[in-house]
Amino acid sequence: MYGDEERNRKMEKGEHLKRQNRPTMLQLQYLQGLSKVEKKRGAQGSIAEYYGVNRSTVNRYFKNCIERGILTESLEFTPVGEEWLERYTKLYENLEKYLEEIGAKPEEIEESLDVMVENIDIHMLELMINAYTEKKSVYKKKENELDQEIQHNLQKCERHPVVFRLYRMNKKQGQGRDSMAMRGFEEIAEIVQENGESYLELKLKEMAAHSRVSGEMMAGKLKTLKYEHNEVLEEARIENNIVKIPMEACRIHRWTGIGTMGIVPVTVTCSVGPMHMPESTALLYFWV
Description:
43% of the residues lie in helices and 28% in strands. It is α+β, with helices and mostly antiparallel strands. It folds into 2 domains: 2-120, Orthogonal Bundle (Arc Repressor Mutant, subunit A), CATH 1.10.10; 155-287, Immunoglobulin-like, CATH 2.60.40.
């Protein structure tokens, strides 16, 4: 029984030492700061000031790194230290990206990173990141193949009618789901092949609205439509009351039980009577 207790104490001590040897994000930043200065001696003060900590805190951590063979007595990185720093820097970058992509809140990320690195072996974290990256790559490849398949099928006919909706991006309580911009379009859109290019065509119609000032009914039409493509807003062509959005700007998804659906974020402006309405952002969904 005594032997079991002794073994448990040693295991706990070993785990504690392992956790001590894993850097927090802030400690890693001390070392990154040190790697960028030419004169290592005396750098502790400027690093401590930059990160808003006591010089003694940085001194203690650098002393610990010297004892572990990461730094020399003159605060130069050893070959092992350089490899260690590069590995943990890459790990933190990849973990931060991973947490952002799965929807972690910005204010929670730094604390989550420290907890993960402190409590999980670096090899396991790297395996997790690699598996996630590989899965994402496979999903992206399948998505691209699906896009090509859908585009190929659509190209077999010059015009393909589709049902679409414009949904509010920032829906407030009590508001309907549809954007008011829906009033400015005919109900059916078309995917059109034209000179080797594919477009989603929306037909404009006159829209009416009551004036908040006079209460009179005023008529007008959509004035501009911008669509998001590669995170940049581009203005759509409007010719003969038809808006053309390039299909390459639309994200295509195939959902079980729903079918194939396209999505593109848009921003529209309308003119009603003598008034110009403010910009309205919406998500344009269409079903193929």
